[in-house]
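On clarity, I found the account of how folds are encoded harder to follow than it need be. What matters is that the chain and its backbone geometry are given together, residue for residue. The format is easy to grasp once an entry is in front of the reader. For illustration, here is how one protein appears when written out as sequence plus structure tokens.
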Amino acid sequence: MLDLVLKNGRIVDGSGNPWYRGDVGVKDGRIAAVGRIDEEAAATVDVRGQVIAPGFIDGHCHSDLMILDHPLSEIKLSQGVTAEVVGNCGLAPAPVFPDREELLRSYISPVIGSTKQDWQWNTVGEYMNYVGRSAPAEHMATYVAHGALRIAVMGFDNRPATPAELQRMKELLEEGLRAGAIGLSIGLLYSPGSYTSKEELAELCSVLPRYDGLLSTHTRGEGNNLLPSVREVIWIAEQAGIPLHVSHLKAAGKANWGKALEAMELVEDARARGMDVTVDVYPYNAGSTSLTTILPPWVLEGGIPGALEAFRDPALRRRIREELGREQDDWDNLVCSTGWQSVFVASASGANAGLEGKHIAEIAEARGVHPADCMMDLLLEEDGQVPIVYFHMSDDDVRQVIGYSRSLIASDSLTCETGMPHPRLYGTFPRVFAKYVREERVLTLEDAVRKLTSFPVQRFRLGKRGLIVPDYAADLVVFDPDTIRDTATYSEPKQQPEGISTVVVAGRIAMQDGAHTGARGGGFLRASSCACGHGYAHGGAGR
């Protein structure tokens, strides 16, 4: 007897091929049969002509700690997401050494958030095992994060690594890869990643080929320096002989709109030389990050505590204000190119809670201060923890990258603890079908599903999932292609989508008609060439 049969669906199998009518049968967490199924099943769901697709893969997000406090993953499951990839942009909670734990916590918390649980891990492998033991309702996979490596070994020192320090970072990277991490992520916009030369990064990446590891990068610049920044990471990958994935490809700032096409041409040139290069994109014209990313890189040489001390020094405060007022050659000054009116506070505490949803220019005017001083004051008042939503992209650029054959689509979502999070946390995947398939016809239904399923699975080496074929993981989503849509907005972001009826994880129904069933069939997925030799996934319930 089968465990579950989804009957009378339009099967979009994840390959990009046209949909066809049929049933999907599930047994022991895997797809057992596809087509017309008359076999008896413990449970049968008549999906009445809705689409049956593989579960969506959120290939770029920041749920590293959120999954520990919210293991049911209602926010992502309600969108049809059955697996998330974390450790992005050089930001992760491991590896961590006890003497630098607070430094790492303050570094990652504006993006990744925090957890009510104690950090009961030091290595990347221990973090994976800890998440796996928590029995999440969805699957997880991770990179080794360069920022965490550098903080563990060097703190926030703005200097090249010594040979001994570089060797120690290589050892920590290798430990994570052996445990099943999918590669290395770097965040060259963020300190201390921004303090690292391309030559040092190429040497660190020399570890990756032994594990088929992928280099994923938040480039050094996404505005005026977008094109040289893309050239830089292509150079690093080419020197190390490794595949490259460019995170959230965008052209930030009105003066740079249109450069996304030029960046894609750089990717095509690299591929023509035989390099394996891909990108991802989120379907919105605003990003979200920490307010500290606006600062000149030197300000963060002492981490968040060092930046707060700089704000208290009148001379340094004047220097920061002056540098933010003009374009810079060696770092992207997005405030100068976009304006303070594009920077919105996503979360604030106590007396500042009323500032959520307001832009810095508006807050500064109300306080009667310069916007740069307002920004520094807010960071002091909030102990350096101010998540922001940043409007700085062109809809045309986003559309171009969404339709690009080398792009997969991901959310880049931050923690749900933020007061007014970016709506991509709640709406990314339904939005793809509502806006870019149904309304604007940038993608076909089948190609949209491919960009959310088999493409990220192949890219991140997540094993036998992402396609509706026998013996693949029974992670599935059922939705109505005519009604699926996002309801989350910038003013009301915490809204669940519509049009998704059933989500299956590891062969068990996890969400039905917007309600969680309590099933927790997820686990930690490990890269398919993981050195443990146990295959594509282990160490958790979702193998």
Notes: The radius of gyration is 22 Å. Residues 163-179 form the longest helix (17 residues).
